[in-house]
Each structure stands twice: as structure tokens, then as C-alpha cells.
């Protein structure tokens, strides 16, 4: 047994008695402090008080107890150096081979409502971080345990072989340094607010993985994970198959998953191209939602990233890669969309809570297709309250945009039916995830299920988003549907009926009534927008003049 003496001094007592009992059975002497020593003694385990080692009592209400040469000399001394060994012997310093320490609950105290400055200051640990840093620095000789979750595994290894290997020691040392860094970060941020009236930020991301390149091939890139985030995310998803994720894959997959995370009452699928939901639909099943989302822009959907809020089924996979399915793409000739058969529907990434075995077998035919398993989306709590944007020379922080509407206030003579209100909210959700200036047109393709039909994203003005993009795409999609269904009515009549039932969503208010009037030109009769313009009255008057229903939500969703 290479471990002969252990120091245990913890604030969080979880598992400490079991650890001490396991060490005692291995013949390891246990040294401890204050409340930890009492806890261990109450467990019927022999323990040496820290004061018996140092020759000093714990002082000043426990502020000083482990800060002593006989403790830190026993940790930091290099066993392989004769001079260190001689000094330790001459000065009566005995080696400490295992140190288990966790820290005063500073973060919890700060978060507790009503905590005073005095309480918070008293929960700044001094000796604990010092012990962790000393032990981690000398990891070759000292096993450092900063997390109760590691007690059982280390005990098991000690029982098995009397020691742990160097790689395990290194990982435990790294974990200790990460903990002290996070602890110092929390103290610095709190005291900066309290003493200097300023906000400070520092970050701790891990598992950095170099990517093939960045947004473009001449840029380098690395992907890091935030270990503090527990909600379902692309960053935390498991890659089941396919090539390594690229920089753009991560960006688009994150955009896709964040869309479908907002739908919990039905199946939902988002088809993302350059972070915009060019296709987005709900359905009775994930396969139905996928089919309707794909139809929202069947040209852009090729090479897209797809997210589903439900597990991927065989039917879902068949739609994309099935041998018995007609896979149709489109080329433009003479200003018209011409359908053509393709061997399959090419996509870059699919992210979903899970994948059924039959679906994995079908999708596995595309060896490069990346399949990301996010875990369940039906009951999660958002664990990341803020988001950041780096600019040259600075950093912007803001709370995440996790709300959809403040209210649903119909401000026109014409109203929304209950069904149209549901469609309007779906349209506004799609618009929320579309780059500004955004206009989205959506329809109810069958009772209770919705589909994006046209989208205008990232334009300098929203009239262009409507006239040149969203309406053009919606009319194009209706023409594809019309041709495929072999309708007996003239196309113009079919188009007019479809456009009249759609809802137009805008991510921000209308500064003038031109968007309303442009919408009316195309037969649109329902609008949802945030409201809040000084000229809202002009838009309302235009709606009443043209027979359009309009609702205000009270929240805008700029997306830059």
C-alpha cells in the first residue's frame, strides 16, 4: 500500500464516513479537522486531530487550522528528492499521501436570499483551496479528492492494487485546479459587484476539440464544452455515427435544436439552413412533421441540418433514405421549378432525443451523415440563463430569449378564431428563430398542425423580406403542391384560397403601414407582430381598411 496517511477536511460531508471507513480498513492513518473529525468519530472510526499533528490548536473560529508547515510540507515534499526527505525527517514532517477536501459553500451562500456580507465573507475558504492546490501540484505523490463522486472509485482502486495510476492522479489534480479556479471566479465576480460596482466575467470551458476548419476553410477552429450546462444541447449530445462535426454543423444544429425545444405538445421538426428554419412544422408523428417541414423549402432542404423533438423512427428515416420512397429535387429552368428524381435526400446532421434501431439501420447507409442524440426534450429545465456574443475588443452578455409572447391582443376589427390563434403563435415562434428582419408565412395544413410555407430572413427591411422572399417562396411551394395534387380548380383560385388562410409573422413592429398594404396585395388576411411603434395606429387603420386581422404580442425577437 503506497498510501499510508490521509487528510480529510470537508465542508460537504457526503460520503466522508464511508471514505474514512474504507481507508481505515486498508490500514491508512486518518487525520482530520473540526466538524469532519467529529463526523468520522461518530462513525466509529479512529481519527487523529489536526492539532495533534501541528502542535497548534485550531485558531480564530477555525479560520486557521491546516495552514502549517507540518501539513503543507507533508503534502508538497518530493519523495524522490533526498534533500526533501532529509528535511522532512529533521523537522518531524510526515508525508500525506491522500487529501480529500471540498470547500466552504461560497456560491450557495451568495445565492441564498437574505445572506449578509459578513456571512458571505466567512464562507470564503482559504485553507481548503490551498490544500487542493498543494496536493494537485504534487499529484505524483498525493492523491487529491475534490469531489465526493470520486471517493468510491479511488477506494476501489486502492483495494485492488494499493494505488492509482499516474493518469488517474493527473485527472484528479486537474479536477482540483478546475474547482479552485471556479471558486476564485465566483468570489471575484461577487466582490467586483459588491466592492467596485462592476460586472466581471471569466469562463471555464473544457474538452477542447480542434475542428477541421472554422466557418471557412482558411479559418482555424476549436470546439469547447461548458461542463456546467445540464439542459439538452448540441454541445452535450452524443455523436452516434458520421463524420466529425464541423464548425458550421455545430452552429446550425444548435439553431435547429433550440427551435424544436420550444414545442412540447406535438411532434416538431426544424430544417435549418444557415441558422434559419427554412422548414418547420408540427405533426402527429415526427415523420409527418419532417415531411411538411421539408416541403417548406425543398430546394434549401438539401444539405440542411434537421432537428426533431421526438425520437427518429423508421418512417422518418425512410423519408430521407428509404429505397421505396421517391426522392425528388428541383432545378430551375426558364424561371420554373422542374422536379427530378434523386437517389436520396442529402442532409448533413440529424439531432433528436433518440434513434430507433430500424432508423439507425437505414440512416447508417449514409456513412458521413452525423446523427446526434440529445436525450429527452419533454421535461427539462433551462440551465444556462445568459448568452454571449464576442466582438472585437469586447464581449456582450444578455439573458436568453426564452419567452414567446407577453400577450395576444387583437387590435383590429377583424378577429382571430381559436384555430388561427394557435397558427399565429406557431408562426411567431418560427419568426423568433429567423434572422432579422424576418417575415414568416405559415399555414394549418390539417386541424391542429402547422407548417412554414415561406420565409424572408436577414433583409435590411421587412417589406423586402415579405415581397421578395417569403411570399415568393410560399407561392412556389403552393405551385409544387398544386401540380402534385392535380387540382381541378385554376391555380390562381387555389393560390388565393391558400394565401388567405396563412398567418404572417414579423419579428418586430411595423414602423409604417407599408408591410400591411404589401401583405394585402398577396391576399394575406392575418398578421401577428410585437406592436410598439409610434405609428401602430397607421397599421391598425390599414388592416381595418383592408379586412385584415392583426394581433400584438408585446415582445419582439430581433435575431442578429
Structure description:
By secondary structure, this protein is of the alpha/beta class. It folds into 3 domains: 5-196, Methylglyoxal synthase-like domain (Rossmann fold, 3-Layer(aba) Sandwich), CATH 3.40.50; 237-373, Cytidine Deaminase, domain 2 (3-Layer(aba) Sandwich), CATH 3.40.140.20; 405-552, 3-Layer(aba) Sandwich (Cytidine Deaminase, domain 2). Helix content is 38%, strand content 21%. The protein contains 19 helices and 23 strands. The protein has a 6-stranded mixed β-sheet with strand order 8-15-14-11-9-10, with helices on both faces. Strand 16 (386-391) and strand 17 (394-399) form a beta hairpin. The longest helix is centred in the N-terminal third of the chain and has 31 residues, at 166-196. The mean pLDDT is 93.
Structure summary:
The chain is an alpha/beta fold and 560 residues long. It is built from 19 helices and 23 strands.
The major β-sheet equals: 6 strands, mixed
Second-tier CATH architecture of the largest domain: 3-Layer(aba) Sandwich
User: Which residues sit in consecutive blocks of at least 5 with pLDDT less than 50?
Assistant: none
* Average pLDDT figure: 93
How is the CATH topology of the largest domain named?
A: Rossmann fold
Query: Helix count?
Result: 19
Instruction: Provide the structure class.
Output: alpha/beta
Record field, number of beta strands = 23
| General shape | elongated
Count of the domains: 3
* Superfamily (CATH H level) name of the largest domain: Methylglyoxal synthase-like domain
Query: If strands are numbered along the chain, what order do they take across the biggest sheet?
Result: 8-15-14-11-9-10
Distance between the termini: 60 Å
Question: Hey, roughly how much beta strand do the residues contain?
Answer: 15-25%
Amino acid at each position: 500500500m503506497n498510501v499510508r496517511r490521509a487528510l480529510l477536511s470537508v465542508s460537504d460531508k457526503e460520503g466522508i464516513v464511508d471514505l474514512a471507513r474504507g481507508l481505515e480498513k486498508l490500514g491508512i492513518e486518518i487525520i482530520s479537522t473540526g466538524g469532519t473529525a467529529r463526523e468520522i468519530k461518530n462513525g466509529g472510526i479512529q481519527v487523529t486531530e489536526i492539532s495533534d499533528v501541528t502542535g497548534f490548536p485550531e485558531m480564530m473560529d477555525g479560520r486557521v487550522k491546516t495552514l502549517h508547515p507540518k501539513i503543507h510540507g507533508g503534502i508538497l515534499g518530493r519523495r524522490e528528492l533526498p534533500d526533501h526527505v532529509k528535511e522532512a525527517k529533521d523537522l518531524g514532517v510526515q508525508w500525506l499521501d491522500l487529501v480529500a477536501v471540498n470547500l466552504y459553500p461560497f456560491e450557495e451562500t451568495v445565492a441564498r436570499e437574505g445572506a449578509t456580507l459578513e456571512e458571505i465573507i466567512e464562507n470564503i475558504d482559504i485553507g481548503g483551496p490551498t490544500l487542493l492546490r498543494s496536493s494537485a501540484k504534487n499529484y505524483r505523490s498525493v492523491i487529491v479528492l475534490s469531489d465526493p463522486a470520486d471517493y468510491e472509485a479511488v477506494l476501489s482502486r486502492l483495494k485492488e492494487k494499493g494505488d492509482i495510476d499516474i493518469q488517474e492522479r493527473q485527472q484528479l489534480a486537474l479536477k482540483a485546479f478546475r474547482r479552485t479556479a471556479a471558486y476564485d471566479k465566483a468570489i471575484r465576480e461577487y466582490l467586483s459587484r459588491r466592492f467596485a460596482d462592476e460586472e466581471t466575467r471569466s469562463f471555464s470551458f473544457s474538452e477542447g476539440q480542434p475542428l477541421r476548419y472554422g466557418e471557412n476553410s482558411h479559418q482555424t477552429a476549436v470546439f469547447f464544452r461548458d461542463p456546467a450546462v445540464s439542459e439538452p444541447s448540441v454541445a452535450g449530445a452524443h455523436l452516434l455515427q458520421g463524420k466529425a462535426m464541423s464548425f458550421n454543423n455545430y452552429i446550425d444544429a444548435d439553431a435547429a435544436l433550440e427551435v424544436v425545444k420550444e414545442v412540447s405538445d406535438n411532434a416538431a421538426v426544424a430544417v435549418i439552413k444557415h441558422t434559419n428554419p427554412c422548414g418547420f412544422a408540427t405533426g402527429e408523428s415526427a415523420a409527418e412533421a419532417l415531411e411538411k417541414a421539408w416541403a417548406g423549402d425543398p430546394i434549401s432542404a438539401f444539405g440542411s441540418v434537421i432537428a426533431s423533438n421526438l425520437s427518429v423512427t423508421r418512417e422518418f428515416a425512410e423519408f430521407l433514405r428509404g429505397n421505396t420512397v421517391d426522392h425528388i429535387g428541383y432545378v430551375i429552368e426558364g424561371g420554373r421549378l422542374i422536379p427530378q428524381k434523386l437517389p436520396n435526400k442529402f442532409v448533413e446532421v440529424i439531432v433528436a432525443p433518440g434513434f430507433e434501431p430500424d432508423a439507425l439501420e437505414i440512416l447508417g447507409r449514409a456513412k458521413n451523415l452525423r446523427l446526434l442524440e440529445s436525450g429527452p426534450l419533454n421535461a427539462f429545465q433551462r440551465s444556462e440563463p445568459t448568452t454571449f456574443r464576442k466582438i472585437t475588443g469586447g464581449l456582450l452578455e444578455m439573458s436568453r430569449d426564452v419567452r414567446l409572447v407577453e400577450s395576444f391582443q387583437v387590435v383590429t376589427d377583424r378577429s382571430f378564431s381559436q384555430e388561427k390563434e394557435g397558427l399565429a403563435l406557431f408562426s411567431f415562434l418560427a419568426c423568433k428563430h429567423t434572422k432579422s428582419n424576418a417575415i414568416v408565412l405559415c399555414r394549418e395544413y390539417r386541424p391542429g398542425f402547422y407548417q412554414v410555407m415561406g420565409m424572408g430572413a436577414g433583409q435590411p427591411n421587412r417589406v423586402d423580406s415579405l415581397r421578395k422572399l417569403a411570399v415568393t417562396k410560399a407561392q412556389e411551394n403552393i405551385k409544387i403542391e398544386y401540380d402534385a395534387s392535380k387540382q381541378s380548380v385554376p391555380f390562381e383560385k387555389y393560390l388565393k384560397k391558400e394565401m388567405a388562410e396563412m398567418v404572417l409573422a414579423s419579428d418586430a413592429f411595423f414602423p409604417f403601414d407599408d408591410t400591411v398594404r404589401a401583405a394585402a396585395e398577396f391576399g394575406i388576411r392575418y398578421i401577428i407582430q410585437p406592436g410598439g411603434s409610434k405609428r401602430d395606429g397607421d397599421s391598425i387603420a390599414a388592416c381595418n381598411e383592408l379586412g385584415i386581422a392583426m394581433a400584438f404580442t408585446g415582445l419582439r425577437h430581433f435575431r442578429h
